[in-house]
Amino acid sequence: MNTSSFITNIRKTVNLNEEEEKYIESVFVPLRVKQGEFVEHSGEITRYFIYVQSGCLMTYFTDKDAFDHVAQFATAGWWTGDLHSITKGVPSIYSTRALADSEVLLLPKNSQEELLNKYPQMERYFRILYQNALVTHLHRIIQGHAAAADERYISFREKYPSLEQYVPLKYIASYLGITPEFLSKIRRRLMESR
Amino acid sequence: MNTSSFITNIRKTVNLNEEEEKYIESVFVPLRVKQGEFVEHSGEITRYFIYVQSGCLMTYFTDKDAFDHVAQFATAGWWTGDLHSITKGVPSIYSTRALADSEVLLLPKNSQEELLNKYPQMERYFRILYQNALVTHLHRIIQGHAAAADERYISFREKYPSLEQYVPLKYIASYLGITPEFLSKIRRRLMESR
DNA sequence: ACTATTTCTTAATCTAGTTCAAGATACTTC
DNA sequence: GAAGTATCTTGAACTAGATTAAGAAATAGT
Question: In the predicted model, what is the mean pLDDT of residues A138-157?
Protein backbone atom coordinates (compact mmCIF):
# COMPACT_ATOMS: atom_id res chain seq x y z
CA MET A 1 0.00 0.00 0.00
CA ASN A 2 1.54 3.30 -0.98
CA THR A 3 0.96 6.70 0.53
CA SER A 4 1.31 8.73 -2.63
CA SER A 5 -2.41 9.51 -2.74
CA PHE A 6 -1.94 11.84 0.17
CA ILE A 7 0.91 13.61 -1.56
CA THR A 8 -1.29 14.12 -4.62
CA ASN A 9 -3.89 15.57 -2.29
CA ILE A 10 -1.59 17.96 -0.52
CA ARG A 11 -0.12 19.18 -3.81
CA LYS A 12 -3.52 20.61 -4.67
CA THR A 13 -3.14 23.08 -1.83
CA VAL A 14 0.56 23.76 -1.26
CA ASN A 15 3.91 23.20 -2.96
CA LEU A 16 6.58 20.96 -1.47
CA ASN A 17 9.95 19.82 -2.72
CA GLU A 18 10.79 16.17 -3.13
CA GLU A 19 12.66 15.91 0.14
CA GLU A 20 9.81 17.44 2.10
CA GLU A 21 7.31 15.12 0.44
CA LYS A 22 9.47 12.11 1.28
CA TYR A 23 9.63 13.07 4.90
CA ILE A 24 5.94 13.84 5.21
CA GLU A 25 5.07 10.53 3.62
CA SER A 26 7.29 8.73 6.09
CA VAL A 27 5.43 9.82 9.22
CA PHE A 28 2.08 8.38 8.17
CA VAL A 29 1.11 4.96 9.45
CA PRO A 30 -0.78 2.97 6.82
CA LEU A 31 -3.59 0.73 8.05
CA ARG A 32 -6.12 -1.54 6.42
CA VAL A 33 -9.51 -1.87 8.08
CA LYS A 34 -12.33 -4.25 7.23
CA GLN A 35 -15.95 -3.25 7.00
CA GLY A 36 -17.34 -2.72 10.49
CA GLU A 37 -13.97 -2.37 12.20
CA PHE A 38 -13.23 0.57 14.46
CA VAL A 39 -10.42 3.05 13.90
CA GLU A 40 -11.17 5.05 17.06
CA HIS A 41 -13.46 4.30 20.00
CA SER A 42 -15.44 6.90 21.92
CA GLY A 43 -14.25 7.22 25.51
CA GLU A 44 -10.61 6.97 24.51
CA ILE A 45 -8.25 9.82 23.75
CA THR A 46 -7.85 10.08 20.00
CA ARG A 47 -4.27 9.47 18.96
CA TYR A 48 -4.43 9.90 15.19
CA PHE A 49 -5.58 12.24 12.51
CA ILE A 50 -7.21 9.89 10.01
CA TYR A 51 -6.79 10.27 6.26
CA VAL A 52 -8.82 7.97 3.99
CA GLN A 53 -7.04 6.51 0.96
CA SER A 54 -9.83 4.23 -0.20
CA GLY A 55 -13.12 2.87 1.08
CA CYS A 56 -15.33 4.78 3.48
CA LEU A 57 -15.44 5.60 7.20
CA MET A 58 -18.01 7.24 9.40
CA THR A 59 -17.54 9.19 12.60
CA TYR A 60 -20.52 9.22 14.95
CA PHE A 61 -21.75 10.19 18.38
CA THR A 62 -23.70 7.76 20.57
CA ASP A 63 -26.23 9.50 22.84
CA LYS A 64 -27.48 8.51 26.31
CA ASP A 65 -30.22 6.31 24.79
CA ALA A 66 -27.57 4.49 22.71
CA PHE A 67 -28.72 6.16 19.50
CA ASP A 68 -26.00 6.85 16.97
CA HIS A 69 -25.75 10.25 15.28
CA VAL A 70 -23.51 10.47 12.24
CA ALA A 71 -21.11 13.40 12.46
CA GLN A 72 -19.46 12.81 9.10
CA PHE A 73 -18.63 10.34 6.40
CA ALA A 74 -15.17 10.17 4.87
CA THR A 75 -14.25 8.64 1.52
CA ALA A 76 -11.00 8.73 -0.45
CA GLY A 77 -9.16 12.01 0.03
CA TRP A 78 -11.00 13.04 3.20
CA TRP A 79 -9.83 13.46 6.76
CA THR A 80 -11.85 12.40 9.78
CA GLY A 81 -11.55 11.78 13.50
CA ASP A 82 -12.19 13.85 16.62
CA LEU A 83 -10.27 17.11 16.48
CA HIS A 84 -11.28 18.10 19.98
CA SER A 85 -10.06 14.93 21.59
CA ILE A 86 -6.73 14.83 19.78
CA THR A 87 -5.87 18.49 20.23
CA LYS A 88 -6.98 18.85 23.85
CA GLY A 89 -6.07 15.33 24.93
CA VAL A 90 -9.52 14.60 26.34
CA PRO A 91 -11.58 11.40 25.84
CA SER A 92 -13.48 11.41 22.57
CA ILE A 93 -17.25 11.48 22.33
CA TYR A 94 -17.07 10.10 18.78
CA SER A 95 -16.28 6.72 17.32
CA THR A 96 -14.90 6.12 13.84
CA ARG A 97 -15.73 2.92 11.99
CA ALA A 98 -15.26 1.53 8.49
CA LEU A 99 -18.41 1.28 6.35
CA ALA A 100 -16.44 -0.70 3.75
CA ASP A 101 -13.02 -2.32 3.56
CA SER A 102 -10.76 0.71 3.62
CA GLU A 103 -7.16 1.87 3.50
CA VAL A 104 -6.35 4.69 5.86
CA LEU A 105 -3.25 6.69 6.76
CA LEU A 106 -2.87 7.53 10.42
CA LEU A 107 -1.03 10.69 11.35
CA PRO A 108 -0.01 10.48 15.02
CA LYS A 109 -0.56 13.63 17.05
CA ASN A 110 3.16 14.13 17.69
CA SER A 111 3.98 13.73 14.02
CA GLN A 112 1.42 16.33 13.07
CA GLU A 113 2.89 18.78 15.56
CA GLU A 114 6.33 18.07 14.17
CA LEU A 115 5.15 18.64 10.60
CA LEU A 116 3.51 21.90 11.60
CA ASN A 117 6.68 23.12 13.31
CA LYS A 118 9.02 21.96 10.59
CA TYR A 119 7.09 22.98 7.49
CA PRO A 120 5.09 26.21 7.40
CA GLN A 121 3.46 24.77 4.30
CA MET A 122 1.81 22.12 6.43
CA GLU A 123 0.46 24.78 8.74
CA ARG A 124 -1.07 26.35 5.65
CA TYR A 125 -2.38 23.03 4.40
CA PHE A 126 -4.28 22.40 7.62
CA ARG A 127 -5.44 26.00 7.87
CA ILE A 128 -7.06 25.70 4.45
CA LEU A 129 -8.40 22.24 5.20
CA TYR A 130 -10.10 23.54 8.36
CA GLN A 131 -11.28 26.68 6.62
CA ASN A 132 -13.11 24.64 3.99
CA ALA A 133 -14.53 22.26 6.56
CA LEU A 134 -15.81 25.22 8.56
CA VAL A 135 -17.73 26.54 5.58
CA THR A 136 -19.31 23.14 5.00
CA HIS A 137 -20.23 22.69 8.66
CA LEU A 138 -21.88 26.08 8.95
CA HIS A 139 -23.81 25.41 5.78
CA ARG A 140 -25.02 22.13 7.25
CA ILE A 141 -26.20 23.90 10.43
CA ILE A 142 -28.12 26.54 8.48
CA GLN A 143 -29.62 24.00 6.08
CA GLY A 144 -30.73 22.00 9.09
CA HIS A 145 -32.72 25.02 10.28
CA ALA A 146 -33.85 26.49 6.96
CA ALA A 147 -34.66 23.44 4.82
CA ALA A 148 -37.14 20.59 5.28
CA ALA A 149 -35.91 17.02 5.45
CA ASP A 150 -36.75 16.20 1.84
CA GLU A 151 -34.75 19.17 0.54
CA ARG A 152 -31.81 18.21 2.73
CA TYR A 153 -31.93 14.68 1.36
CA ILE A 154 -31.99 15.91 -2.23
CA SER A 155 -29.02 18.23 -1.71
CA PHE A 156 -27.14 15.50 0.12
CA ARG A 157 -27.53 13.19 -2.88
CA GLU A 158 -26.41 15.91 -5.25
CA LYS A 159 -23.43 16.85 -3.11
CA TYR A 160 -22.17 13.36 -2.27
CA PRO A 161 -23.39 11.03 -5.03
CA SER A 162 -20.46 8.68 -4.50
CA LEU A 163 -21.52 7.92 -0.94
CA GLU A 164 -24.62 6.00 -2.02
CA GLN A 165 -22.49 3.01 -2.92
CA TYR A 166 -21.08 2.72 0.61
CA VAL A 167 -23.57 4.11 3.05
CA PRO A 168 -26.71 2.31 4.25
CA LEU A 169 -29.77 4.57 4.17
CA LYS A 170 -30.17 4.50 7.92
CA TYR A 171 -26.86 6.31 8.33
CA ILE A 172 -27.79 8.86 5.70
CA ALA A 173 -30.99 9.46 7.68
CA SER A 174 -28.90 9.92 10.80
CA TYR A 175 -26.58 12.35 9.03
CA LEU A 176 -29.63 14.35 7.92
CA GLY A 177 -31.06 14.29 11.43
CA ILE A 178 -34.15 12.18 10.69
CA THR A 179 -35.29 8.59 11.31
CA PRO A 180 -34.80 5.83 8.73
CA GLU A 181 -38.58 5.41 8.61
CA PHE A 182 -39.09 9.00 7.63
CA LEU A 183 -36.34 8.88 5.03
CA SER A 184 -38.10 5.86 3.56
CA LYS A 185 -41.30 7.90 3.30
CA ILE A 186 -39.43 10.77 1.64
CA ARG A 187 -37.89 8.41 -0.88
CA ARG A 188 -41.24 6.97 -1.82
CA ARG A 189 -42.71 10.43 -2.30
CA LEU A 190 -39.80 11.33 -4.57
CA MET A 191 -40.25 8.13 -6.59
CA GLU A 192 -43.97 8.71 -7.04
CA SER A 193 -43.55 12.29 -8.13
CA ARG A 194 -41.59 11.43 -11.28
CA MET B 1 -10.07 53.52 19.55
CA ASN B 2 -7.05 51.31 19.95
CA THR B 3 -6.43 47.89 18.47
CA SER B 4 -4.50 46.41 21.34
CA SER B 5 -7.34 44.07 22.31
CA PHE B 6 -6.61 42.03 19.22
CA ILE B 7 -2.94 41.81 20.11
CA THR B 8 -3.86 40.56 23.58
CA ASN B 9 -6.05 37.99 21.88
CA ILE B 10 -3.43 36.75 19.44
CA ARG B 11 -0.82 36.50 22.21
CA LYS B 12 -2.91 33.75 23.79
CA THR B 13 -2.18 31.56 20.79
CA VAL B 14 1.17 32.56 19.29
CA ASN B 15 4.24 34.63 20.15
CA LEU B 16 5.18 37.71 18.20
CA ASN B 17 7.90 40.29 18.66
CA GLU B 18 7.10 43.96 19.06
CA GLU B 19 7.82 44.84 15.47
CA GLU B 20 5.55 42.10 14.17
CA GLU B 21 2.78 43.17 16.51
CA LYS B 22 3.10 46.76 15.36
CA TYR B 23 2.78 45.76 11.75
CA ILE B 24 -0.13 43.43 12.32
CA GLU B 25 -1.98 46.11 14.25
CA SER B 26 -1.44 48.57 11.42
CA VAL B 27 -3.33 46.59 8.78
CA PHE B 28 -6.60 46.46 10.69
CA VAL B 29 -9.26 49.03 9.88
CA PRO B 30 -11.13 50.14 13.01
CA LEU B 31 -14.83 50.81 12.63
CA ARG B 32 -17.63 51.84 14.96
CA VAL B 33 -21.10 50.53 14.19
CA LYS B 34 -24.36 51.48 15.84
CA GLN B 35 -27.00 49.00 16.85
CA GLY B 36 -28.83 47.73 13.79
CA GLU B 37 -26.17 48.79 11.29
CA PHE B 38 -24.79 46.34 8.78
CA VAL B 39 -21.14 45.39 8.49
CA GLU B 40 -21.67 43.08 5.50
CA HIS B 41 -24.69 42.58 3.24
CA SER B 42 -25.71 39.26 1.71
CA GLY B 43 -25.45 39.31 -2.05
CA GLU B 44 -22.15 41.18 -1.95
CA ILE B 45 -18.67 39.72 -1.97
CA THR B 46 -17.30 39.87 1.56
CA ARG B 47 -14.22 42.08 1.73
CA TYR B 48 -13.25 41.83 5.40
CA PHE B 49 -12.57 39.39 8.14
CA ILE B 50 -14.41 40.90 11.09
CA TYR B 51 -12.96 40.96 14.60
CA VAL B 52 -15.16 42.26 17.42
CA GLN B 53 -13.54 44.54 20.01
CA SER B 54 -16.68 45.42 21.95
CA GLY B 55 -20.43 45.11 21.58
CA CYS B 56 -22.08 42.29 19.68
CA LEU B 57 -22.72 41.28 16.07
CA MET B 58 -24.74 38.56 14.46
CA THR B 59 -24.25 36.84 11.14
CA TYR B 60 -27.38 35.34 9.59
CA PHE B 61 -28.87 33.74 6.51
CA THR B 62 -32.15 34.93 5.01
CA ASP B 63 -34.12 32.13 3.32
CA LYS B 64 -36.46 32.26 0.32
CA ASP B 65 -39.43 33.10 2.56
CA ALA B 66 -37.46 36.04 4.05
CA PHE B 67 -36.93 34.22 7.35
CA ASP B 68 -33.65 34.93 9.10
CA HIS B 69 -31.54 32.11 10.48
CA VAL B 70 -28.77 33.07 12.86
CA ALA B 71 -25.45 31.50 11.92
CA GLN B 72 -23.46 32.94 14.78
CA PHE B 73 -23.18 35.69 17.35
CA ALA B 74 -19.90 37.45 17.99
CA THR B 75 -18.98 39.42 21.10
CA ALA B 76 -15.64 40.88 22.20
CA GLY B 77 -12.72 38.71 21.12
CA TRP B 78 -14.63 36.81 18.42
CA TRP B 79 -14.30 36.73 14.66
CA THR B 80 -17.24 36.61 12.32
CA GLY B 81 -18.15 37.08 8.66
CA ASP B 82 -18.56 34.77 5.67
CA LEU B 83 -15.44 32.72 5.16
CA HIS B 84 -16.73 31.18 1.96
CA SER B 85 -17.47 34.48 0.28
CA ILE B 86 -14.19 36.12 1.23
CA THR B 87 -11.93 33.21 0.38
CA LYS B 88 -13.62 32.18 -2.88
CA GLY B 89 -14.66 35.66 -3.93
CA VAL B 90 -18.31 34.73 -4.43
CA PRO B 91 -21.36 36.71 -3.25
CA SER B 92 -22.20 36.06 0.36
CA ILE B 93 -25.38 34.34 1.52
CA TYR B 94 -24.95 35.87 4.99
CA SER B 95 -25.41 39.34 6.40
CA THR B 96 -23.62 40.68 9.46
CA ARG B 97 -25.30 43.29 11.65
CA ALA B 98 -24.67 44.93 15.01
CA LEU B 99 -26.99 43.90 17.85
CA ALA B 100 -25.53 46.69 19.99
CA ASP B 101 -23.23 49.65 19.42
CA SER B 102 -19.94 47.94 18.67
CA GLU B 103 -16.30 48.50 17.86
CA VAL B 104 -14.93 46.18 15.20
CA LEU B 105 -11.61 45.70 13.46
CA LEU B 106 -11.80 44.91 9.77
CA LEU B 107 -9.04 42.83 8.24
CA PRO B 108 -9.14 43.27 4.46
CA LYS B 109 -8.71 40.10 2.44
CA ASN B 110 -5.44 41.24 0.89
CA SER B 111 -4.01 42.17 4.25
CA GLN B 112 -4.86 38.78 5.65
CA GLU B 113 -3.11 37.08 2.75
CA GLU B 114 -0.11 39.31 3.30
CA LEU B 115 -0.01 38.49 7.00
CA LEU B 116 -0.24 34.78 6.25
CA ASN B 117 2.62 34.99 3.75
CA LYS B 118 4.81 37.20 5.87
CA TYR B 119 4.36 35.63 9.29
CA PRO B 120 4.05 31.86 9.67
CA GLN B 121 2.77 32.61 13.17
CA MET B 122 -0.33 34.14 11.65
CA GLU B 123 -0.90 31.04 9.59
CA ARG B 124 -0.79 29.12 12.86
CA TYR B 125 -3.08 31.59 14.58
CA PHE B 126 -5.77 31.13 11.95
CA ARG B 127 -5.23 27.37 11.79
CA ILE B 128 -5.94 27.14 15.52
CA LEU B 129 -8.81 29.60 15.31
CA TYR B 130 -10.48 27.51 12.60
CA GLN B 131 -9.69 24.28 14.40
CA ASN B 132 -11.53 25.44 17.51
CA ALA B 133 -14.43 26.80 15.50
CA LEU B 134 -14.72 23.47 13.71
CA VAL B 135 -15.06 21.61 16.98
CA THR B 136 -17.79 23.99 18.12
CA HIS B 137 -19.68 23.78 14.83
CA LEU B 138 -19.68 20.00 14.76
CA HIS B 139 -20.88 19.92 18.34
CA ARG B 140 -23.71 22.24 17.39
CA ILE B 141 -24.73 19.97 14.51
CA ILE B 142 -24.75 16.88 16.71
CA GLN B 143 -26.59 18.60 19.55
CA GLY B 144 -29.16 19.73 17.01
CA HIS B 145 -29.83 16.09 16.18
CA ALA B 146 -29.36 14.47 19.57
CA ALA B 147 -30.88 16.96 22.00
CA ALA B 148 -34.40 18.39 22.31
CA ALA B 149 -34.95 22.15 22.07
CA ASP B 150 -35.17 22.69 25.82
CA GLU B 151 -31.82 20.98 26.44
CA ARG B 152 -30.24 23.03 23.65
CA TYR B 153 -31.55 26.22 25.22
CA ILE B 154 -30.19 25.28 28.64
CA SER B 155 -26.73 24.48 27.29
CA PHE B 156 -26.74 27.65 25.22
CA ARG B 157 -27.35 29.72 28.33
CA GLU B 158 -24.62 27.91 30.20
CA LYS B 159 -22.17 28.25 27.36
CA TYR B 160 -22.81 31.89 26.44
CA PRO B 161 -24.20 33.61 29.54
CA SER B 162 -22.83 36.97 28.44
CA LEU B 163 -24.97 36.99 25.30
CA GLU B 164 -28.22 37.41 27.21
CA GLN B 165 -27.49 41.09 27.71
CA TYR B 166 -27.24 41.76 23.97
CA VAL B 167 -29.36 39.26 22.13
CA PRO B 168 -33.17 39.40 21.85
CA LEU B 169 -34.82 36.06 22.53
CA LYS B 170 -36.09 35.73 18.99
CA TYR B 171 -32.52 35.53 17.71
CA ILE B 172 -31.58 33.00 20.33
CA ALA B 173 -34.56 30.96 19.16
CA SER B 174 -33.30 31.27 15.61
CA TYR B 175 -29.79 30.23 16.62
CA LEU B 176 -31.27 27.16 18.31
CA GLY B 177 -33.39 26.36 15.27
CA ILE B 178 -36.82 26.95 16.85
CA THR B 179 -39.50 29.64 16.73
CA PRO B 180 -39.69 32.47 19.28
CA GLU B 181 -43.13 31.18 20.32
CA PHE B 182 -41.75 27.79 21.17
CA LEU B 183 -38.81 29.25 23.04
CA SER B 184 -41.30 31.24 25.06
CA LYS B 185 -43.12 28.02 25.95
CA ILE B 186 -39.84 26.39 26.96
CA ARG B 187 -38.94 29.33 29.18
CA ARG B 188 -42.24 29.18 30.98
CA ARG B 189 -41.88 25.46 31.58
CA LEU B 190 -38.43 26.07 33.04
CA MET B 191 -39.74 28.86 35.31
CA GLU B 192 -42.59 26.72 36.59
CA SER B 193 -40.39 23.75 37.36
CA ARG B 194 -38.34 25.58 39.97
C1' DA C 1 -44.34 61.99 28.59
C1' DC C 2 -46.68 60.01 24.50
C1' DT C 3 -46.84 57.29 20.57
C1' DA C 4 -45.13 53.98 17.52
C1' DT C 5 -42.65 50.01 16.85
C1' DT C 6 -40.50 45.97 18.19
C1' DT C 7 -40.26 42.07 21.24
C1' DC C 8 -42.31 38.61 24.11
C1' DT C 9 -46.06 35.70 25.58
C1' DT C 10 -50.39 32.86 25.36
C1' DA C 11 -53.55 29.80 23.44
C1' DA C 12 -55.75 27.12 19.70
C1' DT C 13 -54.93 24.52 15.79
C1' DC C 14 -52.04 22.14 12.71
C1' DT C 15 -48.08 19.34 10.64
C1' DA C 16 -43.45 17.48 9.92
C1' DG C 17 -41.31 14.11 11.75
C1' DT C 18 -41.23 10.18 15.58
C1' DT C 19 -42.42 5.81 17.62
C1' DC C 20 -43.93 1.32 17.53
C1' DA C 21 -44.83 -2.87 15.36
C1' DA C 22 -44.82 -5.86 11.54
C1' DG C 23 -43.54 -7.56 7.10
C1' DA C 24 -40.46 -7.52 3.00
C1' DT C 25 -35.64 -7.49 1.03
C1' DA C 26 -31.24 -7.97 1.04
C1' DC C 27 -26.78 -9.64 2.85
C1' DT C 28 -23.84 -12.94 5.53
C1' DT C 29 -22.14 -17.03 7.04
C1' DC C 30 -21.69 -21.86 7.76
C1' DG D 1 -28.48 -22.92 -0.31
C1' DA D 2 -30.72 -22.60 4.06
C1' DA D 3 -30.93 -20.03 8.05
C1' DG D 4 -29.88 -15.99 10.47
C1' DT D 5 -29.07 -11.24 10.75
C1' DA D 6 -29.24 -6.53 9.24
C1' DT D 7 -31.58 -3.20 6.36
C1' DC D 8 -35.54 -1.12 4.26
C1' DT D 9 -40.42 -0.24 3.93
C1' DT D 10 -45.32 0.42 5.39
C1' DG D 11 -48.94 2.01 8.15
C1' DA D 12 -51.26 3.59 12.43
C1' DA D 13 -50.94 6.33 16.46
C1' DC D 14 -48.50 9.94 18.55
C1' DT D 15 -45.74 14.38 19.81
C1' DA D 16 -42.35 18.09 19.46
C1' DG D 17 -42.45 21.98 17.48
C1' DA D 18 -44.72 25.27 13.76
C1' DT D 19 -48.29 28.45 12.50
C1' DT D 20 -51.67 31.87 13.16
C1' DA D 21 -53.62 35.46 15.61
C1' DA D 22 -54.07 38.38 19.46
C1' DG D 23 -52.73 40.80 23.52
C1' DA D 24 -49.01 42.37 26.94
C1' DA D 25 -44.66 44.28 27.83
C1' DA D 26 -40.76 46.57 26.68
C1' DT D 27 -37.88 50.03 23.63
C1' DA D 28 -37.16 53.71 20.84
C1' DG D 29 -38.23 58.03 18.70
C1' DT D 30 -40.11 62.75 18.85
Answer: 98
